[in-house]
Amino acid sequence: MEFLQNFPDQTFVTGHYFMWSPTTRTITYDARRIKTNNGRLALLHELGHARLGHRIYKYDMELLRMEMEAWDIARDLAPRFGVTINEDHVAAAIASYDDWLTKRATCPDCNNFSLQRGRDAYGCFACGAKWVVNWRKDRRVKRTIVSRFIRAYDVSDDNRLVSPVDPEQVTANA
């Protein structure tokens, strides 16, 4: 492909999407869409990841930062290669990551936006639930509860502690 010849130091692999692989140091590209402006813009974005040496991230905010940095590189490269920056396309791409990250961080029990505790682990500061999520960005977000906060005592309507809850009953209802 003629456009790819502009980047002789980079290895490209055809596929059905655009993606930078830090493991193999290759950029996968969609051979159909590379012929369009948005396809070339997507390739420049992935080239941004490559040039910045982006690796696997641990926290969601790192991913968002890397995405925005790669778009900045694409903006810098675009005029040199006759690619028009489509800010709507860029905004939609960033919004898709924001939506994905929000789904991961939303508590499956109480729908509160919560805290990331590890690469795939979250915890809700409102209800105490803890969950893990799937890793792949190209899949639907799946949240799996691993534990719930269980109160040893219940609170009455007038805010008094009442007798302990039967642990077997709590476990059965969890």
Name some characteristics of this structure.
disordered C terminus, single chain, 3-stranded mixed beta sheet, 174 residues, 2 domains, 4 helices, 9 strands, alpha+beta, 4-stranded antiparallel beta sheet
Give the number of DSSP strands: 9
> What's the shape?
elongated
N- to C-terminal distance = 56 Å
* Rg from Cα: 23 Å
Structural class by secondary-structure content: alpha+beta
Mean pLDDT: 88
- Helical percent range? 25-40%
Number of domains: 2
Tell me the number of helical segments per DSSP (H or I, 4 or more residues long).
4
Percent of sequence in beta strands: 15-25%
Order of helices and strands: EEEHHHEEEEEEH
The main β sheet shows up as: 4 strands, antiparallel
Tell me about this structure.
By secondary structure, the protein is α+β, with helices and mostly antiparallel strands. It folds into two domains: 1-105, no CATH class; 109-174, no CATH class. It has four helices and nine strands. The chain has helices spanning 37-52, 60-77, 87-105, 167-173; strands at residues 11-15, 19-21, 26-30, 115-116, 121-123, 130-133, 143-147, 153-155, 161-164. The strands form three sheets. Strands 4-5-6-7 form a four-stranded antiparallel sheet, with no helix packed on it. A three-stranded mixed sheet has the order 1-3-2. A two-stranded antiparallel ribbon has the order 8-9. β8 and β9 (161-164) form a beta hairpin. α1 (37-52) packs across α2 (60-77) and α2 (60-77) runs antiparallel to α3. The longest helix has 19 residues, at 87-105. It is elongated and about 75 Å long. Residues 169-174 have low confidence and may be disordered.
